[in-house]
Amino acid sequence: MTSDTPAPLAETSLAAALSAGTVVLDGGMSNQLESAGHDLSDGLWSARLLAERPEAITEAHLAYFEAGANVAITSSYQATFEGFAKRGIDHETAVRLLTQSVELAREAARQARSKGGTHPLWVAASVGPYGAMLADGSEYRGRYGLSVEELERFHRPRLEVLAAAAPDVLALETVPDADEAEALLRAVRGLGVPAWLSYSIAGDRTRAGQPLEEAFALAADADEVIAVGVNCCAPEDVDAAVATAARVTGKPVVVYPNSGEAWDAQARAWNGRSTFAPEQVLRWRESGARLIGGCCRVGPEAVTSIAHTLTSA
Known about the structure:
This protein is of the alpha/beta class. It is 43% helix and 15% strand. The chain is built from 13 helices and 12 strands. The chain has an 8-stranded parallel beta sheet with strand order 1-12-9-8-5-4-3-2. Strands 6-7 form a two-stranded antiparallel sheet. Helix 4 (54-67) packs parallel to helix 13 and helix 8 (148-164) packs across helix 9 (178-187). It is globular, with a radius of gyration of 17 Å. It starts with 13 loop residues before the first helix and ends with a helix.
């Protein structure tokens, strides 16, 4: 560890913790920010607050740590050099904001510790798909018309910045397309930071329509990848996906579905009702899930229920 590397907030690595048991993820960042009254209608989504209200992001992370989460996923999901440039933010400032996303999560962890928290805490730097930058719902479809090489060139620069900020893990999340997963797996090589790979799915396929067996298999031999799974999907799709990910890769499985409500990309609003029940996490754990939390519309109360259910069982 170098002198300018942040002191760890857990005595063991996240990979070791997943080998030993189950770790609780946080819930939706946007959910918590909107509950606190922040407008996320901008194309940068929660990443806009990195520049305008960074303290709000720290507060959101802290709410999840206090709810029982062990891992905070940073607000960098929609933070890209291209996305920032569209808003007139230059490269140097974008580097600072990406770095700050990791620092804010670490600050929340320090505050949680200062309030008497004792459980280990980790920071996962969020890396959203190419479609998140487009802010048009294409992250739920994939198939952008770009090659694997072009997608790798898109992802590598911000991955380098996020890795330099020394998170515990890189969260390659909400990936809709196996081609993009291949690009991301190439892009994380040599960065020196472990990663998890999490697909957005519909039924037994990626959002782009590839069979999950083939999609998960891409990560089976990737040494950098410590967990493989799904997120930002319907809770009903999780059971089969967990079993497939565990069988195909032999790695711990990461799972954090949405509440079950449906996202209307044109109206930018959620419809329907929640179908997420904390007791579902026991089935997921039995099938191989070791990193469990929630995504969109899953807030601190649900995370507390997840933590309590896993601990009680």
